[in-house]
## 1
Amino acid sequence: MRGSSLLGSLCSLGCAAVLLVGCSGDSEDNDGSSAAVCQSLPPLAVKDSYRVGFAQLWEDHGPWRDANTASMVDEAEKRGFELVYEPGTKADPSEQVARMQALIDAKVDAIIVAPHDETVLAPSVVAARRACIPTFIVDRAVDPQVAIPGEDYVSYLASDFRREGEMAAEWLIEKTGGVAQIIELEGTIGSSPGVQRKKGFDERIVSEEGMKILASESADFDEDKGYEATLRLVPEHPEVNVIYSHNDGMSFGVITALEELGKVPGEDILVVSIDGTKKATQYILDGKIAVVVECNPRFGPIVFDTLVDYAQGKKVPLRIDNVDRVFDIDNAAEYLPDAY
């Protein structure tokens, strides 16, 4: 990693405290030295290279998260930026809070964070603003009542999770003529994709008299939990003919469970999924998954473009959406080479 001397770092920090709009040196470090405190969104100086902290949420090598991380790492390297990144160790928001604090303490130029929990991580975003570090929220949201858009962080860059749920519902309505008995496997409780994918889907089908959600529960975006939930719920609801899963990982568990139960995925029960992994796309071609709504993980280019735009004083939207598509048997073969 590239670095600078302690003297240079302290000089830069002192200059920032004088020059940054909305910042004031009205607090002290533990050693008694002056520390900048920003009362409003701090600007970002124009530089040839940046030292950017990345607080990724932890997943046990999920293909979406791995592709998302790789996109960030690759784009930073391409631009000659230093990405300060420590992988997490467990699916615990408090562990991610500690990593956020470590980035703040390291006085990086900017922070990119994908929050594990939108409520627990929100105070960390406020802490970064107070430390005069511009923050960019990626993938999952933070509680806007705690971390205020445009005041505590620059922008939220994500897929439109609610729209993903709506697109899944719209495909299913057209495919089934608005007649379906559905089990819904939700993502992590309290996560923005889990919450919004449920809202988008459920609210879109509520007007379809022939569509009913028989059961809906969290399987935590986890393949094993998707498998276990399917083994239990399908026998409890023998009339089920559709399983709507909030991500591909859970869908893989669904397929394994259905086959163990003597069901034929794609024939006895349609599997509706969200993500767009290579394995799920192949399963479309194999007839095991009916449709996958894409959740594009490749955020690196758009995130770093936004960071540079902000440094240059350009107007940055508070919300920036990645473009997602729908893949079924009609277009899966064309998408497969680009799937992650």
## 2
Amino acid sequence: MSLTCVALGLDHRHIYGMTENMREVGVDCFGYWTEGEPGTLAGYTKRFPDIPRIDRLDDALSCSADLALVSAIPSDRAFLSVQAMQNGMDVMSDKPGCTTLEQLDLIKTVVSDTGRIWSVNFSERFETPASTRATELVDAGAIGKVVQTVGLGPHRLNRATRPEWFFKRDRYGGILADIASHQIDQFLHYTGSETAEITNAYVANYANSTDPELQDFGELNLHSDKGTGYIRVDWYTPDALPNWGDGRLTILGTEGYIELRKYVDVGGGPGTDHLVLVNGDTCEKIQVADAGLPYFARLAHDIRHRTETAMTQAHCFTVMELALRAQEMAETK
């Protein structure tokens, strides 16, 4: 069974990876719809010159694609996801998949009513081979029982290239709902937790006073019956770093630890996807860029067979609910 997709909204660069990775597993893209002329449009058409633009949203929704790739403005993603599911499509949304708990409740209702898949592409796990290898090592018992994760998600502001919505709280959803959803996903995944409790959450604007709705720093703590986690996210990546952010994850086990240096290894080896493994037998840093990205093939399998091999629906819902509740907690202090 061949699969098809359609892109709904090109407002974030993540749509590049979403489209490319689904095409690499054999999914044909009918076309794309987007509102206006977002700054990412030229990059999309350069990468995918064979994918046509669909002028009307109604035409994109009625194109009979199997999968909708949603990367519109964050506050608009829930609406587009709901529309796609009601038109018979499964959904892969960019993160955050929604920006309010009310939106999440609506998505849950529509998933239940339609039987469609709503998957959020947590790209800091799904698009990093280092995360794939870490999963394999954890599953093999290389570091014993995982009891803590420490996730760091620094990002470069790139102010000159950011659209107006990026600086509007109701449009981007808040720094914890947005960026920290990645690290919440990783905590649940590597500890094997079904859910967790947010015990502390904080957001601030320390360096961008001219944009009062921007949150440029956030942190949170969470715990479950399997372990604890700490998460820090920010928009402070300095210009000298050769990429957008030095994203890292430390996974602590009872018999060792793993550190992921996903995008850069400052002072170390070149390239991306560096993994440090320390346990009773091994103390080494290895380059694991060849570990693969199984999420996309698994999602295609799930669409064909109505299974949950890429990510369970319950996990996806829980990640977004925890991120939104952390955001709410931070803003009501």
## 3
Amino acid sequence: MSLTCVALGLDHRHIYGMTENMAKAGVRCVGYWTLGEPAILPGFVKRFPEIPRLNQLEDALNCGADLALISAIPADRADLTVQAMQHGMDVMSDKPGCTSFEQLDHIRQAVSDTGRIWSVNFSERFETPVSTLASELVDSGAIGKVVQTIGLGPHRLNRLTRPEWFFQRDRYGGILTDIASHQIDQFLHYTGSTSAEITNAFVANYANPADPGLQDFGELNLRSAQGTGYIRVDWFTPDALPNWGDGRLTLLGTEGYIELRKYVDVGGAAGTDHLILVNGETCKKQDASDAGLPYFSRLAHDIKHRSETAMTQAHCFTVMDLALRAQEMAESP
């Protein structure tokens, strides 16, 4: 069985990795649809010149693809998700997969009604080989039981390249719904938690008063029966850093700790995907860039076999529910 996909909405660069990695997993993209001429469209065409544009959404929905890749404006993703499922497609959405509880409820209902898969591509885990190695080490017991995570998600603002919706709270969903969904996913995954409670959440606009809809800083705490977590996200990456953000994750275990330096190791080794492991026998930093990205091949397997090897549906729902709850708490008077 050969799988195909269609791209719906090219409003974020994440569609590049989504399309490329599914192609590596053997899933051929048969077309794309997007509104207007978003800024990333030329980059998509350059990377995938063989993929045709479908001028009407109905054409994309009726193309017969097995999977919809959705990277539209965040507030529009849920509606496209439901429509894709109603046309017989499973869905991989860019994060955030939705921006309101109402949207999340609609997706839950669509999954129940259609039996389709809703998978959100939490790329800070699924597109970083160092996260794969960390999962293997945690599963092997290398640091004992994980009892705390500290997730840092700094990003570069790149103001001149951002579209209008980027500065509109109702369109991007808020900084905790958007960016912190990554770190919530990681907390649940590495602690082995199936549920959690948001205990503190805060957002602010510290440096961009001319854009009142932008939240340039956010933080939250969460806890479960397995452990606790702290998350900080922001739009303050300075220009001298050679990439968009120094994303890091620290996993504290009962018998050691792991630090993931995902995108850069300032003052240290070149390249990406650096892992530090310290336990009773080991104290080292290693290159994890060859650890692989199993999420995409696992999702292809799940589409074929109706299984849950890439990510359980319950996990996906829980991540977005917690992100929305954190955002709501942070914005409550």
